[in-house]
Design brief:
3 domains, signal, 43 strands, 13 helices, alpha/beta, 15% helix, Jelly Rolls, Glyco_hydro_30_TIM-barrel, nine-stranded mixed β-sheet, Ig-like_fold, TIM Barrel, binds calcium ion, 774 residues, Cadherin-like_sf
């Protein structure tokens, strides 16, 4: 989700994934996809403290020293791409040296999560047409760099569009069932044709991808039904102001009730036409971004129609003897559910209907609006796999975060442009009579993953590709994610394993220095050093403790506590294990200011945001786990000099609506994991500062600006009387998740005081502000 209507926001696409080639659908209907029986025991298997086992982790090791070899590679950019790391060895946990490490990663194979389906991009007409402006040799080189698992990034999941999306090279927009003049309906689909895809080299591109990555899989989405199946007989979107509003729109073009069945058959005809050309499409999405209020190809489809269409598609697919999966939703987190909003579409309601629930194999999401945790909630609530079918976020940290939130796949949207960032036909305009040729001439997206220079017929890629390859090259549909500890000291992780307990760990080090990490799995561990600012992937055969005959560890309860914002408080977790297994403490989510020692269970609280925290902690012996919740009340205090005032810790705000956008954005690149977005002139946020001594201080604003241009005098700090104390410009930082510090000076009186961060203009994200002694 980006503020200034980043094109992305609207570039829709739907996707889903599938692991067709491999057979087994991704654990439909089961939450814990794993193949082992050793499922996570989320609750406490042994209630009560009836055990006499010693408190604290017991150590039982055979002193055999080195066990499995751990091989690794890392990427920190194009110069260091997929480079080997020194081999390290698993030890029994007592012989890896007691030496301190900067971070501990706890793997809990007793908590199996989602099956992996892949990372990749869309084969929209714009991207494909740009790839076909390369020489054949250069095009081969580009495809290999993107998809070849040996020499390239290994992308394996691709999204096709069923007819025209918003991004095309050659106008006009089209469906697969365009009717000749004088014909108004085609229930027999006799005018159906995918010839346009053939002419646009979409099939050729699929073939090229298949040549270099035989494991590639494909899903497909339609942006709209053909015009004749709609109430307004128009393929592109058509919007109107909501009655009584001057700013909010709705989509006028709806699916005709009597066309639900023929639209489902239209999908099946597409699947059959592609199959005839040797392209297996293993998943359909119900419709790209249903109901979005845009004028590019789009369609409204009510909740009731979504239910009926889902059932109709499933029926038509099965009648055709196909096993194609159906992904529903294919829209933002926010549109599925948002507990804080009265305006969300709440499309999760389609699952109120048992038949729809049965017809749906997965839920597809886009990230442009709402809280990504909705994915994990949806997975847990429905048991359906969740997929990121369309995203413009190229941050590998976000990919890692989304996999931790149970996404099975990650498919980027429209990632190949020409040297100017064209040719595209996306627009935020609500003008139904828009000049699409003009939009195509003027709409530029300069910083996508692949840039094709149409003059030299060569291409370049963004540096993020290499870190993405640290996932895609090594993880495949044979892998299921296993739960693991949250980010600690700048090191985050996501862990997968296959049926044979071969593990793949991706560790991200956001520190500017190499960071030592211990990776703990049951009674074993290994140590490694993750290079600075890099993503590293480790592979080894794990020794997963057997659940047979095991007694699960038991965590003692911790009473609720109240602490002061910015002050430090210690808690201690204690656990027992009847088998005296080696235990590790971990948390899957830790808010900023909370840390946990994996070995001792010591919890340190130094919260930066006031309010209620519901912390969950776990202990595992590798075969089972136990979890407790601790309620922490953080009493608000003024931010002292030297501490960050997180943007999200505001005490008051004006200009943002709580019922609408989530302007507090989750962002792994931001301090505290959150930032304030959607800034605009006149909006403001207030913070309480506690200045011990009057004086002139350094004032730091941590900001991101993805507009591509500096925002002059964008933000000011004002005192309680409204006087401007300081004002700064926000440079182009290169992206909405790319933060930089802007410094100025400010003179403040002593004492507690409320200051206002005032948006003189918009066009930036705010992560935090901080006063420091000069
Ligand atoms: Ca045990
Ligand atoms: Ca922040």
């Amino acid at each position: 989700m980006r503020r200034t209507f980043t094109a992305a926001a609207v570039m829709t696409a739907a996707a889903g994934l599938v692991l067709a080639a491999v057979g087994q659908p991704a654990s439909a209907g089961r939450l814990m996809a794993g193949n082992d029986a050793q499922r996570a025991s989320a609750g406490r298997p042994l209630a009560g403290n009836d055990l006499q086992a010693a408190a604290g982790p017991a150590v039982v090791g055979d002193q055999s020293g080195r066990r499995a070899a751990v091989t690794g590679t890392y990427s920190s950019g194009p110069a260091q791409a997929w480079q080997p790391l020194p081999t390290t060895y698993v030890t029994d946990g007592t012989s890896d040296g007691a030496g301190g490490v900067d971070a501990t990663v706890v793997i809990d194979p007793s908590a199996l999560r989602q099956r992996y389906t892949g990372i990749g991009f869309s084969l929209d007409e714009t991207s494909v047409s740009n790839l076909w402006k390369l020489t054949p040799a250069e095009r081969d080189r580009a495809i290999r760099l993107l998809v070849d698992p040996k020499t390239g990034a290994g992308f394996e999941r691709f999204r096709l569009t069923i007819g025209s999306p918003d991004l095309i090279e050659h106008l006009p927009f089209w469906s697969y069932d365009e009717l000749p003049a004088g014909v108004t309906e085609d229930f027999g689909l006799k005018y159906f044709s995918i010839e346009r895809d053939v002419d646009a080299h979409i099939i050729d591109t699929v073939k090229l991808i298949q040549r270099y990555n035989p494991r590639a899989t494909f899903l497909a989405s339609a942006w709209s039904a053909p015009a004749w199946m709609k109430t307004n007989n128009r393929f592109t979107g058509e919007v109107a102001l909501l009655p009584g509003s001057t700013t909010a729109y709705y989509q006028v073009g709806k699916l005709r009730d009597d066309c639900i069945d023929v639209f489902a058959r239209y999908y099946v005809k597409f699947l059959q036409a592609y199959a005839k050309l040797g392209v297996k499409v293993d998943a359909l999405t119900l419709l790209n971004e249903p109901g979005i209020d845009v004028v590019y190809p789009a369609m409204d489809i009510s909740i009731d129609q979504q239910k009926k269409l889902a059932v109709a598609i499933k029926r038509a697919v099965e009648r055709a003897g196909l096993r194609t999966e159906l992904y529903v939703h294919d829209f933002n987190f926010y549109d599925w559910r948002d507990p804080n909003s009265t305006q969300t579409k709440n499309y999760h309601r389609i699952f109120d209907d048992p038949q729809t629930r049965r017809a749906a194999d997965a839920i597809a999401f886009h990230p442009y609006w709402g809280d990504p945790k909705v994915m994990r909630d949806a997975y847990e609530q429905t048991g359906k796999p969740v997929h990121m079918t369309e995203t413009n976020i190229l941050s590998p940290a976000t990919i890692l975060e989304y996999f931790r939130l149970d996404a099975s796949s990650y498919v980027m949207w429209a990632q190949a442009t020409d040297q100017d960032g064209g040719t595209l036909h996306w627009t935020p305009s609500k003008d139904n009579n828009i000049d699409w040729a003009e939009v195509g001439r003027t709409m530029k997206w300069p910083n996508r993953l692949v840039k094709v220079n149409t003059t030299t017929q060569t291409f370049t890629v963004r540096d993020e590709l290499y870190a993405m390859g640290q996932f895609a090259k090594y993880v495949g549909p044979e892998h299921v994610r296993v739960e693991s500890s949250a980010t600690v000291n700048g090191v985050s992780n996501v862990i997968f394993k296959d049926r044979g307990d071969r593990f793949v760990a991706i560790l991200a080090n956001s520190n500017a220095t190499p960071t030592t990490v211990r990776v703990v799995l049951g009674g074993e561990s290994f140590k490694t050093t993750v290079p600075a600012n890099s993503f590293a992937t480790y592979r080894w055969k794990g020794d997963v403790p057997s659940a047979r005959g095991n007694h699960a560890p038991v965590l003692g309860g911790v009473p609720d506590v109240a602490v002061d914002q910015y002050s430090t408080t210690q808690l201690k977790l204690t656990a027992t294990d009847r088998d005296r297994d080696r235990l590790a403490y971990y948390a899957t989510d830790l808010p900023a200011g909370v840390s946990l020692d994996a070995r001792t269970g010591a919890v340190t609280l130094k919260p930066t945001v006031a309010g209620e925290l519901k912390l969950k902690f776990r202990v595992t012996d590798g075969a089972a786990n136990d979890e407790i919740a601790v309620q922490v009340t953080v009493r608000p205090q003024g931010t002292p000099v030297g501490e960050k005032a997180e943007a999200e810790s505001y005490v008051a705000q004006s200009g943002w609506t709580d019922g609408g956008a989530d302007f507090v954005e989750n962002n792994p690149a931001a301090s505290g994991g959150k930032n304030i977005g959607w800034t605009a002139p006149g909006k403001w946020l207030q913070y309480r500062l506690d200045v011990a001594q009057a004086g002139t201080y350094d004032l730091e604003f941590r900001v991101a600006n993805g507009t591509g241009a500096v925002a002059p005098d964008a933000v000011s700090l004002r005192d309680s009387a409204g006087a401007v104390l300081a004002k700064v410009s926000v440079p182009d930082t290169g992206g909405w998740a790319t933060y930089q510090s802007v410094h100025t000076q400010v003179t403040l009186p002593a004492g507690e005081q409320v200051v206002t961060v005032f948006c003189e203009t918009g066009g930036f994200n705010l992560d935090y502000l901080k006063l420091s002694a000069r």
